[in-house]
Amino acid sequence: MVFSKVFKLFNINKLLVVQARGTGKCNSNNKDSKSKNNNEKVIALNEIHRFIRECFEKLGVKKENAKLMADGLVAADYRGIYSHGLSRLEPYIKDITNKVCDPNACPKIMMETVSTAAVNGNNGLGTVIGAFCMDLAIKKASETGIAIVVTNGSNHFGINMFYTERAAEKGFIGMAFTNTSPVMVPAGAKDVCLGTNPISIAAPGEGNDRMVMDIATTAVSFGKIQTYNRNKKQIPLGWGLDEHGKETTDPELVVKSRKLMPLGGNVSYKGTGFALMVECLSGLLADANYGPNIRQWGQKTDKPANLGHGFIAIDPQKFPAGFQKRLSDLLNYIRKMQPVDPNQPVMVPGDLERKIMEKVNKQGGITYTPTHMSMVEKISKELGVKGVKFK
């Protein structure tokens, strides 16, 4: 699938800029598109996409898979989700070079009905498998109204909303679930057992309006902890624990312990319950690895991840007419509510990302930190891939 088509829903035929601060938010106070920090580098969208794509191709990944992987990583940075963008390139490369995944494997449908399917990802690239499964769910839902597709034999697949937006752009309600390496300490426990197990839903409203939610079932994603650690910033209390199970604001201690708190804290079963729900709709239903049986991603191992994903597509046209209108009516009602802070209007899930995308579309390139640039230079030399040009 070509880059421009995959990114049709993002309106990315332009270049863009994002302030990569490690918080997942755009710095709206900085009006200088080149950034006041001279150590940051502005890179054209197509240029960073080219670099990522060529890195995968250099490793023997076929062109269509390499493009899709680049699409997913750039999509994350475009939305301000820096924990799942360019910063994920290195661990993906390690998975391929260490031969713990097969970058050219093709997903295979193992069993199906008119509205369900179970897929074997054959230890391929997660983004490739995820796109295949969501497209299959959409196809089935267009005929039956609702469909669910699950897969085993997969690997890390990036941001969930990459797949749910894929459905919403075609007029469907999309949902995506995945289990992950165990980093959650369930409520009342001392040790980890479940993953961040994110949930995403995207629903189309009128025109280009939509509701898009993508959340971890832990207090925060592990990738965000890593981003804070790279940028040497303290994390809020309530996000993670040290090796002794004590809450900490030091992200380095959480990176070492790999212990995250569940959504809602360790006195609530909300996060634990949501994580188990995701397991039911991904790992358990797909006969993939689950819970403590999943390997720790990023650590040297020859053990396949065998992650499980789940994808649901719903066709609103098979239900009472006017869903998109009703959704936009509700979203706009919430947006127009009186805010606590007059300078911070009320937003619904997906508005923040759209605000970032609107800003970056006007600014002309993605701004990467020195940490990103060091990684790009290192990978460029190791793989013999042409480096990136700065604006």
TrEMBL record:
Any one Gene Ontology molecular-function term assigned to this protein's record: oxidoreductase activity
Domain of life the protein comes from: Eukaryota
Presence of the UniProt keyword Cell membrane in the record: no
Keywords on record: Oxidoreductase
Keyword Oxidoreductase: yes
Family, as annotated: Belongs to the LDH2/MDH2 oxidoreductase family.
Protein name: Uncharacterized protein LOC114337120 isoform X1
